[in-house]
Amino acid sequence: MSFPAVELRQVTRFHGARNTGVAALDGVSLACPAGTWTAIMGPSGSGKSTLLHCAAGLDQVTTGRVVLAGRDITTAPDGVLTEMRRRTIGFVFQNFNLIGSLTAEQNVAFPLRLAGIRASRKDVRGVLGSVGLADRATHRPRELSGGQQQRVAIARAMISRPAVLFADEPTGALDSHSAKVVLELLRDMVRGAGQSIVMVTHDPAVAASADAVVFLADGRIADRLDGPTTHQVADRLARLES
Ligand SMILES: Nc1ncnc2c1ncn2[C@@H]1O[C@H](COP(=O)(O)OP(=O)(O)OP(=O)(O)O)[C@@H](O)[C@H]1O
């Protein structure tokens, strides 16, 4: 892919009236190159979730443009966005968002089924195997630990080979060992398959797994670190929060 995975051009997102409302994003321009992992950080209320939602086409910008995997989605109709959600982008959330009544393998196959594609059992088991859960294929979410559930969610995102994975606090509900496993899987997606990740996190150690960290403050990009260390990230964040 020669174009950025995600590009925001002069994006604003107002909540409420334009003059009196809150500018959750206020002139944000950002290009995340294909095959890279970008972390979004910033104080509470700085616009991280809004940025993720606008970039993924889950929320509409007030002004500016959003280009996702080379396609301008700013005013794309619902049908196009739905299609992109099924084929081009994947999501991993803090609380896993698995379907409780389905087994691990049924959860993994679910997005493809929605897209009218029948995933072979071999493919589904293969992806579950790659996240270390080959022996848990027929377990339901309640029979799995938090870390295992998040690995099922990652397998579900991997099976359609999305160009861009959006992750919202993907390790927020996990212990440190499970978090490490999940971060290694995300790293494999970027390194092995050339996929791109845009991730919101509050945790400097998690952000340091990314290739770059973009810091927001009051809806604007306030800082950026490339090749970050945990210490550098914590230091920059503390400056923004002080
Ligand atoms: N639906 C909404 N209506 C009005 N204001 C909103 C709405 N959604 C978000 N905001 C405001 O926009 C700003 C950015 O919110 P956002 O959720 O993007 O921040 P955040 O950085 O993700 O925060 P946190 O770290 O606390 O989750 C905040 O001031 C918030 O109050």
UniProtKB/TrEMBL annotation:
Domain ABC transporter: 6-237
Pfam family, one: ABC_tran
Keyword Transport (UniProt): yes
SMART domains (UniProt xref): AAA
Record key words, sorted: ATP-binding, Nucleotide-binding, Transport
Domain of life: Bacteria
Molecular function, one GO term: ATP binding
Name by which UniProt lists this protein: Putative ABC transport system ATP-binding protein
Database matches in InterPro entries: AAA+_ATPase (IPR003593), ABC_transporter-like_ATP-bd (IPR003439), ABC_transporter-like_CS (IPR017871), ABC_transpr_LolD-like (IPR015854), MacB-like_ATP-bd (IPR017911), P-loop_NTPase (IPR027417)
One GO cellular component term noted in the UniProt record for this chain: plasma membrane
Classification via PANTHER family: ABC TRANSPORTER RELATED (PTHR24220:SF685), IMPORT ATP-BINDING PROTEIN (PTHR24220)
